[in-house]
Amino acid sequence: MFDIPKEREVPFAGVTPAPVGEQPMMITGNWRTYRPVIDHEKCNLCMNCVIFCPDACWQLNEAEEEVVWNSKYCKGCLICVNECTTAALTKTYELDFEDGVVRLEKLF
Amino acid sequence: MAVAVKTQTLSPIKKIRSVPTEEYYVPGHRTCAGCGPALQYKLVAKAAGPNTIFIGPTGCMYVANSSYLCTPYAVPWIHAQITNGGAVASGIEAAYQVLIRKGKWEGELPNVIVMAGDGGSVDIGLQAMSAMMYRGHDALFICYDNEAYANTGIQTSPTTPYGGNTTFTPPGPAIPEGKRLFPKDPPQLVIGGHPAVKYVATASVAYPVDLINKVRKALNVPGPTFLHIHAPCPKGWKFDESKTVEVAKLAIQTGMWVLYEWENGEFKYQHKPKEYKPVREYLKVQNRFAHLTEAHIAKMQAFVDAKLKAPGIPVEIPVPPPRATA
Asked: Which superfamily does B31-309 belong to?
């Protein structure tokens, strides 16, 4: 009835595959205007950023003993900067970075 | 004759470092930046673990997460209409009980969790929630309270506080305070009218370890349980998105939100401040209360004071047990 390409076909009753680790169909990294920047020297691994991030964009790297930021999904809400106990996190304009998000590459 | 159902036991955690690292509510969802409900969803999913089924009645956590067929749930999730979150949970739980009884399901009974908003639990979805608790299904009903119908554009709900500026209660010359009514108290509603419920608790995103322990305790208790989770909404309450946790903390420090758990008739309090701050401090950080005058704030303070002191509404002394002999 509709001319739908094979890969865009929707299964019966809206069943969707469960994402593993991340949902790459909804990349939210291009939402932010500020970016949290971590100073690993000051960080005492209090884990506040890991626990309070609504998007799970801070994760502890057990081997390296440091927290890792996920630039692909961070929306730039800066809860982590606000909750950081040692002021290791600071906010910086997104456009100050070489790889800063300027625009959507393609519409979604 | 019911067969003893094997259920899971989830152990409590003590500190922030022992929070499980696995994510079952993965990054890649279109909730607003700094979303309180998304934060509590992440923590609840972490606490419940992989053997979980979420029921999502219509609300922010359905609309903003699962549209266009991409969902952030790494565990089974089903959408229910806003009216029937409790009914769908009842059906799923009853089906698993039958499968286990007939030997067709080898594993443990999954954690059935309803993640309903304040509208889906104590306003539109009240009958289904009440019926689930009346019938005694082994499910956890979570009301994440962002105090408005936020996904449709911040309309007032029964848990919106007095004086809240929403699109249905705009302040104006006729009604200067915006919302004139005082909010419902969902945990007291559940405690008061549902004898099958043995565990009810309130939690807040500001105290994640407490929240995770309460979710785990509620899942370990057989029978229906209820959790009321405070989840600030930066868009609806009109505050800066980085202040979500700060506002949640202020709510507890001013007495606008009380953390307690109720188990078999006994109240226990957590993170109770030694001295409550004036309510004004909580109101001034949110623009939805920006129009309130001194008289309105005094009325609000009186309401909070009465709520904190009143007998029956969170009481300090344990409720006496019923007499053994008639």
From this structure: Thiamin diphosphate (ThDP)-binding fold, Pyr/PP domains (3.40.50.970)
Average pLDDT over residues B208-216: 94
* Chain A residues near residue B239 by CB distance under 8 angstroms: none
- CATH number for region A44-96: 3.30.70
Render pLDDT for B84-94 as a digit per residue (tens, 0 to 9): 999 999 999 99
| Max CA distance (Å), chain A | 61
Q: Looking at the partner chain, which of A23, A59, A82 has a beta carbon nearest the beta carbon of B28?
A: A23
Model ipTM value: 0.86
Q: Judge whether residue B282 has pLDDT over 90.
A: yes
Contacts of B30 in chain A (CB under 8 A): 26, 28
E strand residue ranges, chain B: 52-57, 77-80, 111-117, 140-145, 199-204, 225-230, 260-263, 266-269
User: Could you identify the residue written with the tokens 């606000």?
Assistant: A82
Residue B254 or A100, more confident: B254
